[in-house]
């Protein structure tokens, strides 16, 4: 009878050890996964903030252009503003001095 008790006890000890190892492995995996996901979340938040700032700048530029259109800006002023922004006419070549 002692052997049966001993073998039953050993079986449950082995089973318990496997369960503990599996639980610890799962917790480690979940922790690593959470760290990776939090890092990705922060990166996306920074990217979103950058894009939002850029979008705000574009809206400001559009608002300025719309104001100029509404106030009847002359063609010469429109051309000068466009050239300051880096725009050119179709087929026009732009040369810059290299010094």
General description of the model:
This protein has helices spanning 2-70, 75-84. With 99 residues, it is mainly alpha-helical. The longest helix has 69 residues, at 2-70. It is rod-shaped and about 100 Å long. The chain starts with a helix and ends in a 15-residue tail after the last helix. The model has no long low-confidence stretch (mean pLDDT 86).
The total count of helices amounts to 2
Query: What value does the average pLDDT take?
Result: 86
Order of helices and strands: HH
Structural class, by secondary structure, is mainly alpha
Distance between the termini: 99 Å
Which overall shape is indicated by the principal axes computed on the Cα atoms?
Answer: rod-shaped
Q: Give start-end ranges of low-pLDDT stretches.
A: none
Query: Per DSSP, what share of the residues sits in E-state strands of 2 or more residues?
Result: under 5%
Strands, total number: 0
Largest sheet, strands/sense/barrel: none
CA-based gyration radius: 34 Å
List keywords for this structure.
single chain; 99 residues; mainly alpha; rod-shaped
Record the SSE blueprint.
Layout: H1 2-70, H2 75-84
Briefly say what this structure is:
80% of the residues lie in helices and 0% in strands. With 99 residues, it is mainly α.
């Amino acid at each position: 009878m002692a052997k049966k008790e001993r073998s039953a006890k050993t079986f449950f000890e082995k089973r318990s050890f496997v369960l503990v190892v599996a639980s610890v492995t799962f917790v480690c995996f979940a922790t690593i996964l959470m760290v990776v996901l939090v890092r990705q979340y922060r990166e996306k938040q920074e990217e979103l903030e950058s894009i939002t700032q850029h979008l705000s700048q574009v809206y400001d530029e559009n608002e300025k252009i719309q104001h100029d259109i509404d106030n009847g800006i002359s063609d010469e002023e429109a051309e000068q503003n466009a050239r300051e922004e880096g725009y050119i006419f179709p087929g026009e070549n732009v040369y810059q001095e290299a010094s």
